[in-house]
Design a protein that fits this description.
- The complex is a heterodimer.
- Chain A has a single domain, classed as Rossmann fold.
- Chain A has ten helices and eleven strands.
- Chain A has a seven-stranded mixed β-sheet, with helices on both faces. A four-stranded antiparallel β-sheet of chain A has the order 3-2-5-6, covered by helices on one side.
- Chain B has a single domain, classed as Phosphate transport system protein phou homolog 2, domain 2 (Methane Monooxygenase Hydroxylase, Chain G, domain 1), CATH 1.20.58.220.
- By secondary structure, chain B is mainly α.
- Chain B is elongated, with a radius of gyration of 19 Å.
- Chain B starts with 6 loop residues before the first helix and ends in a 28-residue tail after the last helix.
- The longest helix of chain B has 34 residues.
- Classes of the chains: A alpha/beta, B mainly alpha.
- At the A-B interface, helix 8 and helix 10 of A face helix 1, helix 3, helix 4 and helix 7 of B.
């Protein structure tokens, strides 16, 4: 009896999934489930930092009203790609972005697009909660005020309350809106930052490892919040936690060494990935 | 395929697969010995089969415990998850196979008290050999992680059904001809039924292997043997589990 303890991994006919050649391999794209229409379409996006290429020809459709998770090992380009979607890379000296990124069919890198306005439409939440050193109220009111979304104090009150409620923080802070935002716990600060992002009525929310500094309970609250926000927004989340990607997202894109390797329904990626490198990464086989 | 970064995780998965293969080997031996004990009227062998069944039950519990532990502690995904789940499903099929083999051996003990019925026990032996072979082939396919081997076993289940139906008619003829054979004939009928069920477990195992390796559900159409309209068939015989 032949004994094969190292089972043949995914792929019909008992074979391993094909390892596509590293260079110039198109990513594996499989079945798209019931997700929203494309909100952001990236085409051949490459990013160079001082001439060094960090992202190679990434083409990816990000659906609306859906959570898309970007996963991959450190340095794979997932955060770099996330930052191209609200032109955060513009602020880095020596950084060059090529290719095309369209939001609702409009080129976000066009000269006519004001990056400040773009970033109001495409909000961002970072790994470390970064509330302004102001009161809870002011943290949320700041964006609507500078973007002219509320003209009176009464209107601003409504926006602040609605945003805090949507971020699931209202109950906890309603009686201390005028205490400093920095006095909240880490998880509360992260929800405050999310409230600040949604106060300006964005269409897209980018999250760069929003839970990596939080404990499991705070993490669960943020994940629950992400699930609720999905009904209204297009959400893209970068995470190192595969379990989190599996829990919160409907679509997953796997990056490796600056390339998009595979993208598809989260359920498919985590039960039956088509590409060998995806399988190795999600099953913990990366050397 | 690459090793897990956490080596103990890979070791645990390999151990699980090895234990299922070992359990399969024991179940296979139980079926072969049970049929042998009937054919040779070997009381000692039949008793040994009955006693050894507890070992299969213990292995089943052990595999289940280890798989649950692995799922809880390692959170396997993709091929690793399928492998852990397959080990649990296979252990159930093998445990049931063992129970059916034990039942054959017990009936063999009763038959050994009466007169030999060589033509009938020879038919049981032939059917038993066929079922044992299928079980061995499907377990080899598991150990070698070969999808083709599993599909081949899956595709030949109709041979077992054919044997079962032929035996059914043969036994009926005997019992009608000589009512004194009814007791023995009924025991032999149950043995044939048990073997037919073991064949079904081999088919289940083939499907589980297919899923474990490919990640796809096996959706093939099983070739249906075209039965003699007068013979009991899987569709009309209420004792046949689909």
């Amino acid at each position: 009896m032949k004994f094969n303890l190292f089972r043949a991994p995914d792929g019909v006919e008992g074979g391993a999934p094909a390892e596509t050649p590293l260079m110039a391999a198109p990513p594996v794209v499989h079945s798209s489930g019931p997700v929203g229409p494309t909100k952001i379409a990236a085409r051949d996006v490459s990013v160079f930092y001082s001439g060094k290429q960090a992202l190679h020809d990434v083409s990816l459709d990000i659906p609306d009203k859906t959570v898309t998770a970007l996963i991959g090992p450190s340095g794979c380009g997932k955060s770099t790609f996330l930052r191209t979607m609200n032109r955060m890379n513009d602020t880095i000296p020596g950084c060059k972005v090529t290719g095309r990124i369209e939001m609702d069919g409009e080129d976000i890198n066009a000269k006519s697009v004001d990056p400040v306005l773009l970033r109001a439409r495409v909000g961002m939440v970072f790994q470390k909660p970064n509330p302004f050193p102001k009161t809870i109220y002011e943290n949320v009111a700041y964006g609507p005020r500078i973007h002219g979304l509320a003209t009176s104090r009464a209107e601003l009150d409504v926006v602040v309350e609605a945003s805090l409620k949507r971020a699931g923080l209202w109950e906890e802070v309603a009686d201390r809106l005028h205490s400093p935002g920095t006095g909240l716990s880490g998880g509360q600060q992260q929800r405050l930052v999310i409230a600040r992002a949604i106060a300006v009525e964005p269409e897209v929310i980018l999250m760069d490892e929003p839970c990596s500094a939080l404990d499991p309970i705070a993490t669960a609250k943020i994940e629950e919040l992400i699930d609720e926000l999905r009904e209204r927004y297009c959400i893209v989340i970068v995470t190192h936690s595969m379990a989190q990607a599996a829990r919160v997202s409907q679509r997953t894109a796997f990056f490796h060494m600056g390339r998009l390797i595979e993208t598809g329904d989260t359920e498919d990626i985590f039960t039956n990935p088509r590409e060998r490198r995806t399988l190795d990464y999600i099953t913990g086989r990366f050397g | 395929m690459n090793q897990h970064t956490v080596k103990a995780y890979g070791d645990e998965l390999n151990q699980l697969t090895a234990e299922v293969a070992r359990m399969g080997g024991l179940a296979e031996a139980q079926v072969a010995d049970a049929v042998d004990s009937v054919a040779r009227r070997d009381i000692a062998l039949a008793r040994a089969v009955v006693d050894r069944d507890a070992k299969l039950d213990a292995m089943h519990r052990d595999i289940e415990r280890k798989a649950i532990r692995l799922i809880a502690l390692r959170q396997p995904v993709a091929s690793d998850l399928r492998r852990a789940l397959a080990s649990m499903k296979l252990a159930v099929d093998l445990e049931r196979t063992g129970d059916l083999a034990k039942n054959i051996a017990k009936r063999g003990l009763i038959l050994a008290e009466g007169d030999p019925m060589p033509p009938l026990t020879r038919s049981i032996e032939r059917m038993g050999k066929l079922v044992s072979m299928r079980l061995r082939d499907v377990l080899d396919a598991y150990a070698a992680a070969e999808v083709d081997g599993a599909i081949a076993v899956w595709n030949t289940d109709d041979e077992v059904d054919e044997h079962y139906n032929a035996l059914f008619r043969e036994l009926l003829t005997y019992m009608m001809g000589d009512p004194r054979t009814i007791t023995a004939g009924t025991h032999l009928l149950f043995m044939a039924k048990n073997l037919e069920r073991i064949g079904d477990h081999a088919t289940n195992i083939a499907e589980t292997i297919y899923y474990e390796i490919t990640g796809q559900e096996f959706t093939g159409e099983r070739p249906r043997w075209n039965p003699d309209p007068l013979a009991p068939t899987a569709d009309t015989d209420p004792t046949t589990t689909a």
